[in-house]
Write a structure and sequence with these properties.
The complex is a heterodimer of chains A (about 190) and B (about 150). Helix content of chain A is about 70%, strand content about 5%. By secondary structure, chain A is mostly helical. The two termini of chain A are about 30 Å apart. In chain A, strands 1-3-2 form a three-stranded antiparallel beta sheet. The chains are: A mainly alpha (about 190), B alpha/beta (about 150). The interface between A and B is medium-sized, with 26 and 29 residues.
Amino acid sequence: MLNDHQFLVLNSLYLKKMASAGDLAAMSGLAADDVRPMVSGFVDQEWVLDIGGELVIQPEGMAEVEGYYSQALSDPAQREALAQWYTRFESINSRFIKQVTDWQETEGDARAQDRVIATVERLIKSLGEITQLAPRYAGYVRRFERSVAMVDQGNSDFVCTPTVDSLHNIWFELHEDVLLMLGKDRTE
Amino acid sequence: MASDIPGYRYIGQGYSVVPVGRHEGIAMNITSPREMIKLMSNLDKVKETVVVTPGGTTTFVAPLLYKKPAGIVTFAGTPESHLGIVGRNFRIPIVMTLELEGMDSIPDGTPLLLECEGKLGSVYVKAEPGAAQQSEDGSVLGDGSVLG
């Protein structure tokens, strides 16, 4: 069974599927010096494939992450609380996807961007309701706030460019994370 | 309905995510995240592959887009989706909610051509060399083949 820090790192790769050790450190909020030896251990156990510094999670590593998820929320009351939160999230998720699509199709229109940011800020507030169920969700808040700040500073790559820690990337990973916590499948 | 083009047989149409013109690749059906990971571990193969997702869930193939596959074909979903957002960024040819005509599935190894223009995308199968093809009006193509 993974310990909490191992889970944070391996889960980051599970959600992204392919990443560098530096990416995993940034996503997990752990120090790069702590992440690198952990990743070496994952490679030795064949949970992760290292292709010249690009790490790809392997089926055995996916099974480890899924095993952790399956036991992460064993209290029925907590599971119900998260399920209720997820129901509310689904409507905000549809809105966010539409707003990001609008932003792309208008080539970064300022009003479209404001709508994306407003929806992310609403989600950040909403995440406060579930960080007591899973304290690691505070990590998503940290990443969202950092990327909102980047967008505010004029770096629009942080709206939805896949190769940076963009708002869309973080949102996508959070969505996947909550689905895994609840043992639900995506419908899209 | 779109029609055949020289050397290719039209097999269906769906939504185009981003207008990137015509691109060719070899079909591979990917039905689970584990199959996607296996393909992702072979980067040379990714680049020549048109990923076909036969199931209703399409989002799980989004990480593959980072490695620039030849294209993506889905039988569900719309461009207003996580997959659409990532595909638009990478300008990958994606045809979503493909409605096949004259066939029920796209077998692995099928050479495909995706034509992504405007809001619609068309999918074609490369005709086998020497295969007789005839156009709707029965005319013979300039390359000696006959459209069918």
